[in-house]
Design a protein that fits this description.
With about 300 residues, this protein is mainly alpha-helical. Helices cover about 60% and strands about 0% of the residues. The structure holds fe (ii) ion (FE2) (2 copies). One fe (ii) ion binds next to loops.
């Protein structure tokens, strides 16, 4: 029997309610989002909020000083970062830097830990930003956060019912090369009654994140099924997800049975073979930075 949309919504909503004590955004993040949405707020307002949280400030500076932002010299203050990158970019970095707390929970099974997923999310965030910057797509501020958020539905699943996530990962099975033997989304649906795209989309809604982030979590496995006008960012993250799964010592790819890239996605991104190769080279060059991005 297939799950109806209604049953699925019910499963997703009750999971989101169940985890609401853990999955609330930190106060400082909420303040930052509110502030940037207010047209009257200034750079010094943002600076004041961020500097009240030294750990967050240093995380932000680490990201700002990473090679992706290509800023001249070492940026030592949040004020300087705001001047160089703008309010919106610093807001997105601040949200990203405050998400690490949600990716905790230790080793679930030998094949899955929240920390591995966090490392994968960091790598996908950096790769998404590199893709939009290289292709000059003008979505730079959102791409990083979109990459970071794309698999957050897995954390919702983990925090709402760890046992079920263990069941999902165990039933998947992987071969010697780390390739999953089954489609994770299908296994999630049979175990939970919904998949991580559904859970992620619901969490973004609850957090009142921009619609483009909701769409990335919802469509990162099937970007061409999204509305034509909103396919670009899901396509970017779809590509980033696959490219980072080819890199690093222990790449996370439980939800990717194949790393083949749909021709239609390449078309949306206007990527030919040559451009794709140069993207891969750039990603490989920044791999060391990616690994320790948000720490
Ligand atoms: Fe995914
Ligand atoms: Fe992913």
């Amino acid at each position: 029997m297939s799950t109806t949309t209604e049953q699925r919504d019910q499963v997703v909503n009750s999971a989101i309610n169940e985890i609401s004590h853990i999955a609330t955004l930190p106060q400082v993040t909420l303040q930052i989002i509110k502030l940037v949405e207010d047209p009257k707020s200034t750079a010094s307002d943002l600076h004041e909020v961020i500097s009240g949280d030294p750990a967050l400030s240093s995380r932000i500076l680490k990201v700002v000083n990473s090679s992706f932002y290509g800023l001249p010299g070492q940026i030592a203050s949040i004020n300087r970062a705001i001047v160089l990158l703008g309010l919106n970019a610093v807001k997105n970095i601040a949200i990203a830097a405050s998400l690490s707390k949600l990716f905790r929970g230790g080793n679930l099974t030998p094949r899955f830990s929240a920390e591995d997923l966090w490392a994968h999310s960091n790598a996908t965030a950096a790769a998404s930003k590199i893709i939009v910057d290289t292709l000059k797509m003008g979505l730079s501020d959102e791409a990083f956060l979109a990459g970071l958020m794309h698999d957050i539905g897995i954390m919702v699943m983990m925090q709402s019912d760890r046992q079920k996530l263990i069941e999902v990962v165990e039933s998947l099975g992987v071969n010697a090369a780390g390739v999953p033997l089954m489609d994770m989304l299908e296994v999630e649906e049979s175990v939970y009654g919904a998949n991580h795209c559904n859970f992620g989309e619901a969490l973004c809604k609850k957090w009142k994140f921009p619609r483009c982030l909701e769409l990335v979590t919802a469509y990162h496995h099937a970007p061409l099924t999204a509305d034509k006008d909103s396919r670009t960012l899901p396509c970017v993250v779809y590509l980033a997800d696959r490219l980072v799964a080819e890199m690093g010592e222990k790449p996370y790819r439980l939800d990717l049975q194949t790393l083949d890239i749909d021709e239609g996605v390449l078309e949306v991104l206007k990527l030919d073979g040559e451009k794709l190769e140069s993207l891969k080279t750039r990603l490989a060059e920044s791999a060391a930075d990616v690994a320790t991005l948000l720490g």
